[in-house]
Amino acid sequence: MTFDWSVIWTNLPRFAEGAWMTVWLAVVTMALAIPGGLVLAFLRMSRFKVVSFAAAAFVEFFRATPLILQIYWAYYVLPAYFDMQFSQLTTAIMGLTLCMRRTFGMLGLGCLHIHLMCRKGEVIA
Predict the structure, then answer these.
(1) Which residues contact 15 (CB under 8 A, 6 or more apart)?
(2) Are 81 and 124 in contact (CB under 8 A)?
(3) pLDDT score for 115
(4) What is the DSSP string of the chain?
(5) Is-contact 105 40, C-beta < 8 A?
(6) At residue 92, does pLDDT exceed 80?
(7) pLDDT at 83 over 60
(8) In degrees rounded to 5, what are phi and psi of residue 120?
(9) Is the CA virtual torsion 68, 109, 30, 79 positive or negative?
């Protein structure tokens, strides 16, 4: 069994286009998700229980569902039930951003707790 390298070379522009789209999606997703994650982290630290609970519910909902299910829901279910149609690119950005926002929300919350502990003079082992 031999590998036919001509398939790779004839489709190289498609591979390059896919790589470029991947990098572009990563940059756009991070540009939207990092500030959103920080906002979630601050909301989770709120003194108001309703605000803190709502932020925690958002994070836990998106932690509990796989990314492919979120994208499927946004692309197929929202148009069917709520008459909202998103393009493929918008759906990808929305799904990736929401997924990464919860990750950065948890990461930011942990960093904020460590920062506050260090300011109080506590030692982190």
Answers:
(1) 8
(2) no
(3) 63
(4) ----THHHHHTHHHHHHHHHHHHHHHHHHHHHHHHHHHHHHHHHT-SSHHHHHHHHHHHHHHHHS-HHHHHHIIIIIHHHHH-----HHHHHHHHHHHHHHHHHHHHHHHHHHHHHHHHTTPPP-
(5) yes
(6) yes
(7) yes
(8) -80, -5
(9) positive
Contact indicator for 97, 29 with CB cutoff of 8 Å: yes
User: Tokens representing 56?
Assistant: 């925690």
* Domain annotation for the chain: domains and CATH numbers: 14-119 (1.10.3720.10)
How confident is the model over 15-33, as pLDDT tens digits?
999 999 999 999 999 999 8
Contacts for 91 with CB less than 8 Å, ≥ 6 apart: 71, 74, 75
Contacts of 67 (CB under 8 A, 6+ apart): 95, 96, 99
How long a stretch of residues is the chain? 125
